[in-house]
Amino acid sequence: MPINVPSGLPAVKTLAKENVFVITENRAIHQDIRPLEILILNIMPDKIKTETQLLRMLSNTPLQVNITLLYTETHDPTHTPMDHILRFYTTFSEVKDRKFDGLIITGAPVELLEFEDVDYWDELKEIMEWSKHNVYSTIHICWAAQAGLYYHYGIRKYPLKQKLSGVYRHQIVKNSVLLRGHDDFFWAPHSRYTEVRKDDIEKIDDLEILAESDDAGVYIVATKNERMIFITGHPEYDRTTLKEEYERDIKKGLDVPIPANYFPDDDPSKQPLFTWSSHAHLLFGNWLNYAVYQKTPYNIEEIA
Questions:
Q1: Which residues are catalytic?
Q2: pTM of the full structure
Q3: What pLDDT score was predicted for residue 18?
């Protein structure tokens, strides 16, 4: 079964060209099953690019998934046309009385700010608190993972000496349904200026580190019941996302390293290697199946 997205969403055309099966609302109502309700809080600047990346990840599953796109009311988006926001997105005030099987909170390029200095921090805190009783399982990505660990458990972030950018080898350190089908070692992208530390996470009894990297540190952290998942990298990234970020940073005059293990021969003029796609699809598919579909109540109003 496919994902069900609003009719007219630009991602539909992009995914159709990739032979990804997507249906619109009109067709979905004729399928007599209980679809999963997934909310995506998109706080990345280029929302169209990020929504396409995440919808691609959620499409490779036999489950039908209804997608609701959410943006922050307390921050005006500047990199996405407002007509797109008004047509396809909703606000927290409009969904806070609903229940959702799953929630994805994206990253955001604000990690050098203190959490409290982010202009939508209070709204994000309200959403994260709400998610504990109105969402069955939540994935926090990159900065959102750091924000979630800080809000829920008081775990701080630390600045890195330079930007961590590239594709790094990771190893499984604890068996989990989220990593079912993975090899012992797999690759995943990171793009960030800060980190969370293993020692701080290990002090929290409710948290388990599932995967880590010798070079990139902690990667996947989850509560023991998989209702909160924190991913410090960007498995949803396209082949060229790190390239585009690198070129953007260089154009701004920033002193950033060439993304590690990404360009053949570390040559930015060459086509980047795409070495994490299978990991990403399997990770999101496992989340939808094992952490959400197999556990969420059939009556969504029973989520607590």
A1: 142, 234, 236
A2: 0.90
A3: 66
